[in-house]
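Risk register update: the risk of archive-format incompatibility is retired. Evidence:
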Amino acid sequence: MRRSRKTKIVATLGPASNTQEQIKALFLAGVDVFRINMSHTPHDKLTELVNAVRNVETDVGRPIAILVDLQGPKLRLGKLTGGERRLETGSEILLIRGETTDEANALPVPHAEIFNALSEGANVLIDDGKVRLRADEVSKDRVRATVLQGGTVKNHKGMNLPDTLLPIPALTAKDRADLDYALSLSIDWIALSFVQRAIDVAELRKEVAGRAGVLAKIEKPAALHALAEIIEMSDAVMVARGDLGVELPLEQVPGWQKQIVRAARKAGKPVVVATQMLESMITTAIPTRAEVSDVATAVFEGADAVMLSAETAAGQFPVEAVQVMDRTAQSVENDPNYRSIIEAQRVPPEATMPDAILSAVHDVTNTIRAAAIVCWTKSGSTGLRGARERPAVPILALTPNKAQARRLTLAWGLHCVETEDAHDLDDVAVRACQIALDQEFAKRGDRIVVTAGLPLGTPGATNLLRVAIVNPK
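Archived output:
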């Protein structure tokens, strides 16, 4: 079974998609990676969902990736007297350290780190930015603030501090418990929320210890200032436009999306564009034209994957949402402008043997009009380098490692096949031709371009380029 597009689709599981039958329907509609949000998933449910995905994987005979998304630190108001309070624009309000407060004209904030890090003039956003405050005077247990945008605030509503680098750990106690449990199951990616610095990702990498890929969610302004370092430390990144759109002026988000996608592509790391892509399909069977254009823009940019959140987790039309995303990606990739846009964004290869080889693979493939590229990849690095080139033809990633076959499913254009490692140089070409034929990526007489590393089985040692002809037996 093969997809008719190179851009991958990530779908979030939830009440609308938590049975094995629903998961299979979503896969057949086009899902490549299933996301499980630990903000809403207890451990027993996580086990159930992972088992359901693996059963579908066995049924369809294709590797499927599972992305576990850690909740991350959540900043929230405490409990308000009466449950809610109306704040008028231009008025003053106090933020009092604690779970509750009896003081009039005050909001309780149970996070000491906010009072320690907040500076005068900094913005404080409440309830996804619906209410906006400016800190005027700050002390260790209270802040006097001006209400810049009024509204009603309620118990435990979320808080965002876009101008403040918070001294909080990347992993909460809940995250650590969820991480340990998730890693005991056959999951493939761990997503870290609210990344601020590269050291946040490094902390997670240490805990994961190679048992899964590490994906950093870019949703804080502080992360934008450390973007290069965060990408270098991560295995993949996500443009998490939800909180990013709260903490940044909305008009800046599209520009940053392009910058993040291009930076990740340059580094050869998979990049996912997420949040509100087909939001109206939570309740309607047909998306808006603007939403389809939004998905198309991410595909034109060369994002590795586009993601559905509530659309598949809790929406009324989860399968239809995936089908719309699938058709949109196919349409864009067949657009006459697509290839020229993708080629214009290619970056020169790094001065390493593997990068030079994969750049040459791209050029040779175009010159001889090969039907496909076949990458023998044990660690996954050869497959990712091939994906970075964004070739016009499909890429088969052959690996003896089931975990790598699943993990690489997130990357642009990779059709992953689990197979035993090549035995010798002849086997490198012969089996590549046979698998390309069996998987219907090439016909007899077609040429394919094969790349691998010598000595065979050596991770990251890509140094071989070979043109092979798929001959009839």
